[in-house]
Amino acid sequence: MGVNVNTSTTTHVETHKETHKPGGAPARYAKGRYARGWSRAHRWTAALPRLTFWFMLAAVVVAVAGCNRPGGAPGVSVRTSFALGTLVQIRAYGSKAREAVSDAFDRIEAVEALMSANVATSDVAAVNREAGGLPTRVADDTLYVVKKARRYGDLSRGRFDMAIGPLVRLWGIGTNHARVPSPEEVAAARSLVDHRDVEIDETRGTVRLRRAGMALDLGAIAKGFAADRAAEALLQQGVKSAFIDLGGNILVLGSKPDGSPWRVGIQNPWKERGATFAVVPVRDMAVVSSGTYERFFEQAGTRYHHIIDPDTGYPAETGIVSATVLARRAVDADALSTTVFLLGPSNGMRLVTQLPGVQAVIVTQDRQVMASPGLRGVIEVSKGWTIRFYGASDAQES
Ligand code: ADP
Ligand code: MG
User: Quick check: is 381 in a domain?
Assistant: First the structure.
């Protein structure tokens, strides 16, 4: 069919190299987790080629980590595993770092069990099965995420739509059955997508989809929420410094152990994974990107990516290649990176600058970089890149 499925998702790299330094931060890996992660190759969209890629990458990571001192110095723990259909890495510092990281992975798995559309026993699957029928009682966490999704749906006038399920299924992007649907199929699926038809009853703790055939999809927000829950687990074990990477959804806790800020790289959309064009030094911050390069397939020379405009039913064309959002909580940064992508450069920046404590970096198809004013003097861009700040007439060059 001439279809290629791209396998990359991670958008951020942490630029310091501590993990792989011989004798540096020791790593700990739970064997068997790979097998478990592998057998749960369902995720939001059963992305087999992607998982194969991650599986191979994980093998490389383990090999590198194997060079580190076994046992290692007390107080640091690094672990890499599959969860939420992506490669998750957590590095934590503290006297109970091992327990903390273990708890953090448990929390992430709990979020997956509740919010993956592809886990038959999840809240999302239960709500979807009852579409057009009865309200479904869901966990407090699910209710919280659905309420957040409703908020970003409202803020974007429906561009961000948690009821995007029928269109996500139809396109199958990121799965091995991705294809370009017919206009009739698109129209039929599109008519079932409207977040205002998601009924939330806060007192009863229920969610209901008004019409049969509707389907929730929390793929644009659940990873962020999982990162927040992981951070909570780390804090409860006394961890004050940590780096959480959920397939490119970055959340840092505190600063680096030496007191300097964590440095989060922003992926160059045209280069191989890990090649960045900018770095943001941050403390206690989430940094999340959404982009066309993350998950897509190509057919007849056209690229179809995984962020769908609910108005057209087709992958959103807003001139943006990647949208990165910084916010205190990863749930907000995750939802907002997708929202900004869907809104386009001007409307996206307008929204971001209205939200306290939120910053954004947008890269457009014509290689322009725009950042919110709060990043002036903070963001570091690589040589050859020029950055403009929203609302300003001047530009900053590296
Ligand atoms: P990633 O999952 O690659 O990190 P995003 O956070 O941007 O990327 O989320 C993209 C996912 O969000 C899609 O795979 C799909 O599950 C879901 N999605 C697609 N279009 C929309 C939309 N208009 N509103 C809300 N969620 C969407
Ligand atoms: Mg998102």
Answer: no
